[in-house]
Amino acid sequence: MSSNLTSPTSPPPPVPSSQLSSPSLAESADTQGSLSASRTLLRSPSRTLPRHEASNESITQAASLDASIPAITLSINGLGLGSDGSFDDALSAMTSAAAAAAKSGVRNTSKRGSRGEFASRPHTNTVPPPVPQGHMYRADAKARAEPRAPTPAMYWAQKKTWGTRPPKMRSQSLNVIGSNIYVFGGWNNTVCYNDVYVLDTETMFWSRMATTGDEVPPCRAHTATAVGHRIFVFGGGDGTQYFSDLYVLDTKACVWTRAKASGKSPSARRTHTCFYYDGFVYLFGGGDGHRALNDLWRVRAEPVGGAFEWEEVETTGGRPFPRGYHTSTLVGNQVVVFGGSDGQECFGDTSLLNLDTMEWAHVSIDPPLTRLAHSATLVGMYLFVVCGHDGADYSNQVLMLKLDTLRWETRMIFGQAPVPRGYHACALHDGRLFVHGGYNGQEVFDDLYTLELSSYSYLPQVPEFVIGCHR
């Protein structure tokens, strides 16, 4: 970790007994310290999942499966996060290798080492919840007959669009401002982009924004945070380059501005997350090309004396494990950090940060489901986790975490779901989840899907609730 980052202010989460394959991560382990027993109880056995086949069993039944199934830690040889390879590349290699292993029926059971405090991390799946099927199949034909979706049911639809469409891309950003969707950056596994594409959601017409101002480098795995009519873009990278600059796009004037920063700033990184709360844009985690990170920063959304002032935020309660390709979703005055990876393992843990007290809490959710390169969107009191990689294969599941009970749920969804994928972009607008682009280990996509929420679109109107109040 770069020299301008401080050590955790309180003990980090419990770490398993297997050895780290990366020298840089092993070094960072010495700064993490040992964990309290209470945090250990919140973790669940580590395991690599086979590809899930839908069934009619309930999620409660899935959670009660025999706990004696041998735990397996996902460890891909040669994915050290040292100077020979980047954190982002390690994740891509991990997911590709895991998918190949899943298809061949061979599991990697190698250990990460023998350091006592690094046992196999208890973050990976048991069994994902069953997914009810919204399709009907004819026994006498391969063609699928789509039933009419009931009025209250959710359904997938691939959207027809016009205009200047974005090219195939992954690891791009997507923001909603008014009735427009703004897509920035991304790459096609060969070329990174720095274009801004705008979708008018009322006409489904794409256009490429003609911008002026400071030049923004092509980038991927950055963050883009909407604050009013502005979009704050931080970090990302292109190839072996990692960025630490903050750019602000004025969507009304179509002008880019490279923000002048004051004070100590976050190190260059990508695969991090950002969110806006109470006048600040917060940044958590990511990877800097050598190791995964778990530091927390924030910057005022309004400049002071013409400069944007960064500050590192001290927290209590023990930070989550270092990670990238996780999600950080704002829920009231708390942020829910879920999933991700450190380049070695796919995580399924959930942590809450109270932004008023700056205290971390780590919750146990049964069953724990692993995801990286997924999306997580707040809809009422549900967190909709869409697609991503589960440590063994890409998924097109829609998982719903009910935040008052902290239990996973699924629903019957009609229509034709997207091809399993991760590294996509997703946002909620007008009762629909928009899912754009992504990657499935072989192909980069340029398609656009909507998940029509139907009666679930009224969920944002639910009264305030407390996370975990009905556990």
Automatic annotation (TrEMBL):
It comes from the Eukaryota. Residues 29-47 have a biased composition (Polar residues). InterPro entries: Kelch-typ_b-propeller, Kelch_1. Keywords: Kelch repeat, Repeat. The keyword Repeat applies. The keyword Repeat applies. Residues 137-147 have a biased composition (Basic and acidic residues). It holds the Pfam family Kelch_KLHDC2_KLHL20_DRC7. Residues 1-57, 102-150 are annotated as: Disordered. Gene3D superfamilies: Kelch-type beta propeller (2.120.10.80). PANTHER family: ACYL-COA-BINDING DOMAIN-CONTAINING PROTEIN 5 (PTHR46093), FIBRONECTIN TYPE-III DOMAIN-CONTAINING PROTEIN (PTHR46093:SF18). This is Galactose oxidase. It comes from Coemansia umbellata.
